[in-house]
Every structure is written in structure tokens, then in C-alpha cells.
Write a structure and sequence with these properties.
52% helix, three-stranded antiparallel beta sheet, 14 helices, alpha+beta
């Protein structure tokens, strides 16, 4: 079904590239793309609604059939139709998810990714078609652009889950969240929403927040020790090679390799494994593309540059694999006197201790999986984790 929207998607991908390279001079394009996303979203949501209504009607028809041999045949046909409609709904949901990825691409073109991530961890709202208050949201959206201020309709994204609109705060360039309310009435729900927005805004400004994400305690943001190192440029060279020749393989650094292909086969994988001098953990990057656990990551619609490659990645015609060496991770820390255990549990992947077990640090799966979803250097990641555990140790020694 996604092939029906291929030309539309390629056009949107190309325009998104323009925005990412120069958002300041493409403010009207930012508005225009979102207006088109609204139309497409409304159209597909209505398709889903009609399919669900048809399924409901068919189920009722099936339950009212008399108990005859002929009725059994009719029931089987109805069951097949319902199954077909369910598959159509799944396809439509995937297209809606992809449209939201384009919305994410706009957001990441306007804001720093670390200022977007905190606003991502919340369940999505329902359909925007028929949403009470959406007319007001759209009015505020257009008013912002009419005054030269780029705005984002949050329901068009996966990454902005707080407030209805987001604009750039002219004082600091941070996201400024707006809750659109047509009534002056106040209730507990509105008070909670306002409190959440104020807390989130303060967090972005101060890098510290209490009792957020339904957790108890203080959460702090700290800077990296060194500037992030990634292989996005290398990946895009590999993608272009794969589009020409069928596949591309690179050992990008010790313990980390990429494979990009347009034709996946076990023979290719076995050949690659023989090239590696380690027994790897294989991660299929495509699995992250529409997974809700990938919220907050730099979007693939921006990290992959070529519009056709973006499209092929989301349809599964272009596959990206990452190979990592877990032994390299262990050796990296053991050589520095750090004990590490690798086990995914309660959203954490790594647990590290100093040799005396006086200091410990847990690394979340979401953070570590940036190696696969954002094509971050494994060595850079491990060095940063080591720096953080040493920072903790040094602070404890100062206190003592």
C-alpha cells in the first residue's frame, strides 16, 4: 500500500532535506509541508475509521448468521474479509507513523536533539481528525507563521508529546510549548497539563527536574566529555554504493561494522561473518524505524540523505545491519579497571562498577542503542560512559 504514496513521500523527503540544510530561509516550506501532512493524515485516519466501521458491521452480520452449512461458507468469507481489512488498517497505521517521522524531521531541523528528547516520552494522542480544539491549534499555528515564527503542530510528530504547538523561544532558542485552550474553564486535568509544561520548560532551561515521567527523584542533564562522533556521512556513502552494486560492507572501527544491502540473503551474512574477527551481535537498524521505543532518537528521515534511499529503508527494500562485539565492550572497561555486566533488564543494558565496587553506573538500553539508531561511534560511546563513572568516583572522593 505504501507504494501508492511513493511520489508524495519522495517529494516530502526532498523538501525535508531543504529544510534541514537551511531552516531559516525555508520557513514557508515548513508551514506548507505541515499543512500537507494534515490533509494526508486526515485522509488516512478517515480510511482507518471506515475500515473499522466495516469490520464492526461484518462481525455483527457474522454473529447473526443462521446455523446452516451455507452460513459456514459465508462466515469463512466474512472472516477473510475482516482479516484483509485488519491488514489494511496495519498498513494505514504504518503510513501514519511515517508521516509523523517527517514531522519529527522538521522538529529536529529547528531544535537541538537533546532539547527534543525530554518531550518524547509519553504515549501518543488519538486521531487528529475530529479532535476537539484542533481548529484553534491550526489558527495559532498560522498566526505564528504570519508573524515570522516557525511553529510545529505537535500531533504531526512522534517527538513532541507535551502541549499542542511548539515554537522557538526567542530568548534562548529552546522549544516553547503552547497548550491551546478555547475556554477559560479550569479543571484538574488542565492544571496537571500546565504543571507538566512548566516543569518541562524549566528542565530544558536548568537541566534539572524533580518527579517527572512518573518517577520519584531528581533527574539531571550533564554535558558530554567530548563532542559526539558518528558515522552518518560514511553510512550515506555506503547507501549510495549499495544502491549501485547491491550491498556495501565496512568495518568502521574496532568492534563495530555496518552492512547495507538491497538484497538480503543468508549467504551474504555468512560471508560477512567470516570477514569479521569477532563473533558479533547483529542488530537490524530497520527494526527501529517505526518502533515506539525509538522515540527521541535523531530520525532516519534526516540521517539518510537520498530521498529514494529513505523510501526504500521504510519499505524494507534497503536494509541496514550493525554488527557489534560485546567482548570489545568488556575489554574496553576491564583494561581501565572497570567491571561490566551486559544484561538487558528493566530498560538498562550495562551495569558498571569500579574495582572496589564503591561506585556503580547503569546505562539505559535507550542510550546505548544510539550506536545503532543514530550511527554513533562505539568507541566514543564507551569513552563517554567511562568518563561519567570516573566523574562520579571523583565527586565521592572529594566528599570523603
Amino acid at each position: 500500500m505504501i507504494s501508492y504514496y511513493k511520489n508524495t513521500l519522495l517529494e516530502l523527503f526532498n523538501e525535508l532535506n531543504q529544510i534541514y540544510l537551511d531552516p531559516v530561509n525555508n520557513i514557508e516550506l515548513i508551514r506548507d509541508i505541515q499543512l500537507r501532512l494534515i490533509k494526508k493524515t486526515f485522509y488516512i485516519e478517515n480510511k482507518i475509521k471506515r475500515k473499522k466501521e466495516s469490520i464492526k458491521s461484518l462481525k455483527k452480520e457474522k454473529s447473526n448468521l443462521p446455523r446452516t452449512s451455507q452460513s459456514k461458507e459465508i462466515a469463512l468469507k466474512i472472516k477473510d474479509i475482516i482479516k484483509s481489512y485488519d491488514m489494511d488498517i496495519d498498513d494505514y497505521q504504518r503510513i501514519l507513523g511515517l508521516l509523523k517521522k517527517i514531522g519529527d524531521g522538521i522538529a529536529f531541523s529547528l531544535f537541538q536533539k537533546w532539547d527534543i528528547k525530554p518531550a518524547s516520552f509519553k504515549d501518543s494522542s488519538g486521531f487528529i481528525s475530529g479532535k476537539q480544539g484542533f481548529i484553534l491549534e491550526k489558527q495559532l499555528f498560522n498566526r505564528a507563521f504570519n508573524n515570522g515564527i516557525p511553529a510545529i503542530l505537535n500531533d504531526l510528530t512522534n517527538c513532541f508529546k507535551y502541549g499542542d504547538l511548539t515554537i522557538i523561544n526567542p530568548k534562548n532558542g529552546l522549544p516553547y510549548f503552547i497548550e491551546a485552550k478555547s475556554s477559560a474553564n479550569v479543571n484538574n486535568r488542565i492544571i496537571r497539563q500546565k504543571d507538566k509544561l512548566l516543569k518541562l520548560t524549566k528542565y530544558l532551561e536548568t537541566d534539572e527536574i524533580d518527579n517527572f515521567y512518573d518517577t520519584i527523584g531528581t533527574m539531571k542533564r550533564i554535558s558530554y566529555n567530548k563532542e559526539e562522533n558518528n558515522y552518518i556521512d560514511l553510512l550515506n556513502k555506503m547507501i549510495m554504493e549499495a544502491l549501485k552494486t547491491g550491498n556495501s560492507f565496512e568495518l568502521v572501527e574496532k568492534g563495530l561494522a555496518y552492512f547495507v544491502t538491497t538484497f538480503f540473503s543468508k549467504t551474504d551474512i555468512n560471508t560477512l561473518l567470516n570477514k569479521l574477527d569477532f563473533k558479533p551481535v547483529v542488530n537490524v537498524v530497520n527494526d527501529f524505524k517505526l518502533n515506539k521505543e525509538s522515540r527521541g532518537y535523531f530520525p532516519f528521515v534526516l540521517s539518510i540523505k537520498e530521498p529514494l534511499a529513505k523510501y526504500m529503508f521504510f519499505t524494507g527494500e534497503l536494509i541496514i545491519l550493525c554488527f557489534t562485539d560485546l567482548n570489545e565492550i568488556i575489554k574496553h572497561f576491564e583494561s581501565r579497571g572497570i567491571i561490566v555486566s551486559i544484561e538487558e533488564r528493566d530498560n538498562f543494558l550495562l551495569k558498571l562498577y569500579d574495582s572496589k565496587r564503591e561506585v556503580s553506573l547503569q546505562v539505559s538500553s535507550h542510550f546505548f542503542y544510539r550506536v545503532y539508531s543514530e550511527f554513533i561511534s562505539l568507541e566514543w560511546m564507551l569513552n563517554e560512559i567511562y568518563s561519567q563513572i570516573m566523574n562520579i568516583k571523583n565527586k565521592l572522593e572529594i566528599v570523603v
